[in-house]
Design goal:
This protein is an alpha/beta fold. It has helices at 6-12, 29-46, 50-66, 75-82, 100-114, 125-130, 135-148, 166-171, 173-190, 210-231, 254-271, 306-320, 340-343, 353-361, 367-380, 391-398, 402-405, 407-411, 415-435, 442-448, 458-464, and strands at residues 17-20, 23-26, 69-72, 91-95, 120-124, 153-163, 194-198, 239-243, 280-283, 325-327, 348-351. Helix 13 (340-343) links the parallel strand 10 (325-327) and strand 11. Helix 3 packs across helix 21 (458-464). The radius of gyration is 22 Å and the shape is globular.
């Protein structure tokens, strides 16, 4: 149901919630959950009116705060991890690409069932582009899902791979860094209080020393971290992640880790005395984003270097006080490997593509809709197909872009289909949360996470829409 005017939206909320002095007053939270939140989220995404989209987002975000749902930084938990005060679990960071409302609801349901507090929603710079989900929008969707599932407590949303494009950097360094700074500003304003800056694309292995190989990585990383620290809302320390090895490239080494962290910390302190450094470090251990599809479009096995992961994670904790190492490109790994990550004290693991695959490959996903998406992708993105790619490989690597190209049609899927896919996703999330040992982490998460309420402003939400 899309509202035709502000007046119609406000009328829909009569007896449920009302605008009052720059905020909202919830009069019936049960009715908000069962009667109104679905419509508010849909309008926050699809309404053709900027005004109504912005108003919907403002109401969702204001209601979330009133219901004890607070956008937060995971910095406190990661600091405790670095001090050795908690251990034995790996925080899942889940990329929200498609069917975002239904998927987010399934994650909140799992967290409630397993008493989990340590989990992150995230979206990468590239995903923001091809899924057509800007920061203010995706935050509203996630918070709407939290309201719908009657969640309470901190919610961690992360800007994943806020990455420097090496080609653009080489052409115009200032412009590329400025574009990334603008995205960081937009993300923090929306509530991304966790940001993974990825300048590992600037590592130059042709240099003669490890420090010189990593120099552009840590120098630009410090510039972006300083920018983040200057934008933080009062009372919030954004959790910042660094990266030393681009995913899909050469595996990381101890010398690279130390060269990056030693020089990063020294330069950051010089540039901004006393500034909080990064909380975790992403490394390369043999995986690639989305997995590597064979000619039949199915993902082939990878040789993951667990010894590298364990060693660098330990060094990051013991010598630098970080939460540990981060594993990227992991969702398509065999399911029986995930219990290894908490055993090795991996701090965080990023999960994306397998959830996307589960949506497209669900038996209830309409075949005619899938065919429509694939035919469109074959035409529009034909230049991206490599000569060596089979059609199956091309579709596997490209179908992530269908979420943006067919955004409204995904929302139009029947309630039966969306419920079934949501349930299927939830079973996968439950399995991963259990394997990663994050069940029962709600108490330690709440105890280490300051609750800082940052109310939205209606003007900013409308402007962002």
């Amino acid at each position: 149901m899309l509202f035709a005017s502000d007046k119609e939206l406000i009328q829909h909320l009569k007896g449920i919630a009302s605008l009052n002095n720059g905020g909202i007053v919830i009069e019936n939270s049960d009715r908000l959950i069962t009667h109104s939140i679905d419509a508010l989220v849909e309008n926050s995404v699809l309404n053709p009116s900027n005004q109504i989209r912005g108003l919907s987002r403002f109401i969702i975000k204001s209601a979330a705060i009133e219901m004890g749902i607070v956008l937060s930084s995971i910095q406190g938990l990661y600091d405790a991890r670095g001090r050795g005060e908690c251990e034995g679990f790996t925080v899942p960071a889940i990329n929200i690409r498609g069917m975002s409302y239904d998927f987010s609801r399934s994650i909140f349901r799992t967290a409630q069932k397993l008493d989990t507090g340590a989990f992150i929603f995230e979206i990468a710079r590239s995903e923001i582009g091809y899924t057509f989900q800007q920061p203010h929008e995706i935050v509203g969707v996630i918070l709407g899902a939290a309201i719908r599932e009657n969640h309470s407590g901190p919610v961690f949303i992360q800007g994943d791979h806020f990455q420097v494009n090496a080609k653009n950097f080489k052409i115009n360094k200032e412009k590329e860094v400025s574009n990334l700074k603008n995205l960081i500003k937009k993300g923090i304003e929306a509530g991304f209080y966790n940001i993974d800056i990825d300048t590992s694309t600037l590592v130059d292995l042709s240099k003669s020393t490890v420090v010189e190989q990593q120099r552009a990585n840590f120098e630009v990383g410090v510039e972006l971290t300083k920018h983040i620290r200057e934008l933080e809302p009062e009372g919030i320390t954004v959790s910042v992640g660094g990266e030393i090895g681009e995913v899909g490239k050469e595996n990381s080494t101890e010398s690279e880790l130390r060269a990056y962290l030693d020089n990063f910390n020294e330069l950051l302190d010089k540039e901004l005395k006393g500034a909080t450094s990064i909380s975790k470090i992403s490394i390369q251990t043999g995986t690639s984003h989305g997995g590597v599809p064979g000619p039949d479009g199915k993902v082939v096995d990878v040789n993951l270097d667990f010894e590298c992961l364990e060693s660098l994670s330990r060094i990051a904790r013991q010598d630098y006080g970080l939460a540990g190492a981060v594993q990227h490109g992991a969702s398509t790994l065999p399911s029986d490997l995930f219990n290894k990550f908490p055993e090795l004290e991996t701090a965080e693991i990023h999960l994306a593509t397998d959830f996307q695959n589960m949506i497209y490959d669900n038996e209830l996903f309409p075949e005619d809709f899938k065919k429509e998406i694939y035919n469109h992708l074959r035409k529009k993105f034909a230049p991206e197909k490599k000569e060596t790619d089979t059609d199956e490989q091309f579709i596997y690597k490209t179908r992530k872009k269908g979420f943006g190209e067919f955004k409204s049609k995904f929302w139009d899927l029947s309630k039966e289909i969306r419920t079934e896919i949501g349930s299927h996703l939830q079973r996968k999330v439950e399995h991963l949360f259990t394997q990663l040992k994050v069940e029962g982490t709600l108490e330690i998460t709440k105890n280490t996470t300051p609750i800082i309420k940052t109310p939205p402003t209606l003007a900013q939400e409308i402007a962002s829409a």
